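Readers outside the structure-tokenisation community will struggle with the description of the input data as it stands. Showing the layout once, in full, would remove most of the difficulty. For illustration, here is how one protein appears when written out as sequence plus structure tokens:
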Amino acid sequence: MRPSRTQRVIACLVYPDSYALDVVAMVSPFTTANHLICNPGPYPVYHWTTDHGPYSIVFLSKRGGQVSTVEGMRYVTHSLRSKQARTIDTLIVPGGFGVVHALRDKDLVSSAERLEANARRVCAVGSGLALIAKIGNLNQGSAVARADYANDLTRYYPKLALNTHSLFVREGKFWSSAGAASCLDLALWLIEDDLGRAMALKVAKRLVVYSRRLGDEPQLSLSLGAMTRFSDKFEKLHAFIRNHLASDLSLAQMAGHMGMSIRNFSRRYMETFGRTPAQQVEMIRVQEAKRFMASTDLSFREAARLVGFGSEQRMRRAFARQTERPSSKKQRRTRNVGPERL
């Protein structure tokens, strides 16, 4: 369907053996926004329409037709030279095993360069960053990559400043995310940039997103990092902490929750994580406070109360220990939220 003049065209450039999950995770929030705006009634809607939604989604490839992904799915695409590729607002390039061959395809690279030049914003997912760096002006800027392929990217693009810790970052009109899960977070921030925070939150709720993450959050969460390196015996404790942040999470209470003596609990926890239980609680509270302030209108004092710091002064000291402390509401929004460089 031909997009209307008021619709933003979200174009996904797919190539053989790209990752379907990268495509779906990035595109689904935009289609969900269309559904919510065009069909405001109760869910489910069996006869919905997206004809007049804010976004028009198109899939592009070198020659058009069906393109197979790594997972075996097939996308029906338009050619890069078709009329559907002429007016693009946002260009998305997924990762995948096939990116190596895509980089060697001169015709594909040349056509993609024209798309990039005319797009308002360009988003790379995972290893799709390699293609974006080749066709755009990002080879001397900042970008996000997972550590397992960062060395390969640095070899080909030595001037590219790679961040292997954050979920996603912005460099001018270029956005990059570490992978499929983080690109869903990125898409939500793009929707907020286009349609406002209220709509982004509605989309997140419809997609059952547990928590909207900030771009500068670590790729490996505290809980996932612990599960990767150690046994999961403390995972229930971390879930208990997150669900009771406003409570008195004393050492005695946590030890009792684990059914251990205070001394044994403290020793085992330090041996497992290399930090004290109190330090872990503070880290989790700081993370949650940052999310509250980035996605709501809560004041610093209100956020401090909700996450269990008790006082504004106590939370400021914790921020100073663990993260760059925001000095004003405006700075909070621009340092930690997607629409600005992270």
Notes: The longest strand covers residues 55-61. The two ends are 36 Å apart (CA to CA). The chain is about 50% helix and 15% strand.
